[in-house]
């Protein structure tokens, strides 16, 4: 292929720029002919907007899907998952099976969530069923833990119930909308501290769904010991794991940044809880990520110029059940520690190797099937084409219905195929 | 003798300087406060800037280097005369053939965890069978079999139980009570030593990306440990000087000990119940790790380990050995730091635990010298500074080290391997 890849970015981060430069790519400006644009979410909105948008040519690739917010906005994610579950239920799919109390057996991975102000009355009904519960209020359009607070009394969210005359929160502006979710007040604690998982997932296409999981995820620990005590509901250092918040705490350590690798977590859990429950936990985590992608796949604009690297936030409760908290379209590329910098550098490197084959000028018509050797630290999480091609003989357990299908390319662990303990 | 006196002198002078007693009883208010804070001592930030560690590993190394055996005459041992390392005490250490025999399970034909489960060898061939045997050993509660078993490495899920079996630790009510008693002791009395422990943990574990999570457990265990008089009685039959100074407490007959804080942190990955964690740690210290801090002629003592390491390196990688000496980087000065902490803080935890499996399995610390040798071999082509060795080590897999160890009997192969990497 003649010519070097011309790149643009509006995110000035060294982990990105170093990766472009080491490939010998050429930096250009947005107005010039570019091949690769690593853009912020604001920019992608412009590129695909009705007024300001423009057509991308075959040799242009961008790092977001046009309507990624179907997955990455807290309210839309929940909406899509609810819709997906109802559809499966209507089809009679075994995935949508429920238990005696009406909870989904396999698809209950998002905490009970309502949109405010739209679902206010529904929320109140739910709240009154268990009045001692704690709920977490999150603004739909913000990130890094901004604007989040916990409540355990209805009076604390009175303003969302007022009618349109008095409340400014009744506007349709996306910035003011909130979601309220049941707070997981029994998180798994290690060393007495709460943590969450940040996992990176690369999607190269939604239809067919092809996604990759980065092996080197990490846990983010709070610097302060966890307590569900109501007196500490205001202490965000106890409850919110976002580094943007924790790093202002007194005890924040700049060497390790309060982070553990997922491998450490695995070692700890296997050593203290056993291999079966640990494997089951990790299988479930993979499962819920794939289900969340399947839920939005039908509504995603599967533009062939696009790929996306998501930051999944997951919390594990003390029964070793994983919960999907949210998905980030622009996971932070800021490095809080030296290890962090290396991890993010490698993440971008491996992402580029998959998204831009051979580092050459892209052709968006390619089949998006990279050879195994370029995956780096990524592993195939789910490949719909492979899954369908394999047929029933790859299924672990016999089940009726086409909609499930076998999980063809399973996560590989150290060269072996992991026997998933999925259902 | 004189090492002991030095520590004591250092402590006493610190007391005088800072006007702090070696030991004092806490007022009731302070006791209550500490009890409340028992699970989060890590968040305390007392001013520790004036506390100096009583001794650092390098001070201890200086002492070892200056050891001389007054009964030894230079003319006696030819081989020792050519020994160019830092250790000048001619202790008997195993040579390669003896090591090979001793560590026979580490040979190439025997399966190992860490190698054989991560290659193309189908898991059925080794790992599944190995796990099955491990489960059987646990069901039968056979301590001797467990010890034999972990020579090939322990599966992560079985390790906690296997180690407890080998060390004969079970959770009887008396044991829990014993720990609670020590805890009460900590609450009631404050020791100068506590501040030193606190400072050491703050400097090491809280900055470590594996162990920071367990910082609070470390305080709990170490503070109790420094008051555990049953540990002290164990050293009654240790021929050499114990690694601590006895401080006659003003408060009576209790004796307090100054230990150089040993290796608790990795154990936090296995045991999260405080009294069990404490027992395991104490037993491991009393059986093995104390030898890293005491001067003795025992084959697992730190002096022998140093000598073993230097001898192996000089014999099998002479060019490397001489080169390092020439540029003023005596190899032992590097590996000593690793060995004296049994590699804790220098290896990834999963690798470290596999190494400690072998310590338990062979009831010997000699593998620490072997591991040091291997790391030097591995870095042979990459050594340009001490910093780069330390950086490489974290990535090292134990599979390579075992492979190397078993090749050690074939020097030509060893050199070839070192050149490849």
Automatic annotation (TrEMBL), chain A:
<feature type="region of interest" description="Disordered">
    <location>
        <begin position="391"/>
        <end position="423"/>
    </location>
</feature>
<dbReference type="GO" id="GO:0015631">
    <property type="term" value="F:tubulin binding"/>
</dbReference>
<dbReference type="GO" id="GO:0005524">
    <property type="term" value="F:ATP binding"/>
</dbReference>
<keyword id="KW-0436">Ligase</keyword>
<keyword id="KW-0963">Cytoplasm</keyword>
<keyword id="KW-0547">Nucleotide-binding</keyword>
<comment type="similarity">
    <text>Belongs to the tubulin polyglutamylase family.</text>
</comment>
<keyword id="KW-0969">Cilium</keyword>
<dbReference type="GO" id="GO:0036064">
    <property type="term" value="C:ciliary basal body"/>
</dbReference>
<dbReference type="GO" id="GO:0070740">
    <property type="term" value="F:tubulin-glutamic acid ligase activity"/>
</dbReference>
<dbReference type="Pfam" id="PF03133">
    <property type="entry name" value="TTL"/>
</dbReference>
<keyword id="KW-0493">Microtubule</keyword>
<dbReference type="GO" id="GO:0000226">
    <property type="term" value="P:microtubule cytoskeleton organization"/>
</dbReference>
<keyword id="KW-0206">Cytoskeleton</keyword>
<dbReference type="GO" id="GO:0005874">
    <property type="term" value="C:microtubule"/>
</dbReference>
<comment type="subunit">
    <text>Part of the neuronal tubulin polyglutamylase complex which contains TPGS1, TPGS2, TTLL1, LRRC49 and NICN1. Interacts with PCM1, CSTPP1 and LRRC49.</text>
</comment>
<keyword id="KW-0966">Cell projection</keyword>
<dbReference type="InterPro" id="IPR004344">
    <property type="entry name" value="TTL/TTLL_fam"/>
</dbReference>
<keyword id="KW-0067">ATP-binding</keyword>
<protein>
    <recommendedName>
        <fullName>Polyglutamylase complex subunit TTLL1</fullName>
    </recommendedName>
</protein>
TrEMBL record, chain B:
<feature type="domain" description="Rab-GAP TBC">
    <location>
        <begin position="153"/>
        <end position="363"/>
    </location>
</feature>
<dbReference type="Pfam" id="PF00566">
    <property type="entry name" value="RabGAP-TBC"/>
</dbReference>
<dbReference type="InterPro" id="IPR035969">
    <property type="entry name" value="Rab-GAP_TBC_sf"/>
</dbReference>
<dbReference type="InterPro" id="IPR000195">
    <property type="entry name" value="Rab-GAP-TBC_dom"/>
</dbReference>
<protein>
    <recommendedName>
        <fullName>Rab-GAP TBC domain-containing protein</fullName>
    </recommendedName>
</protein>
<dbReference type="InterPro" id="IPR042507">
    <property type="entry name" value="TBC1D19"/>
</dbReference>
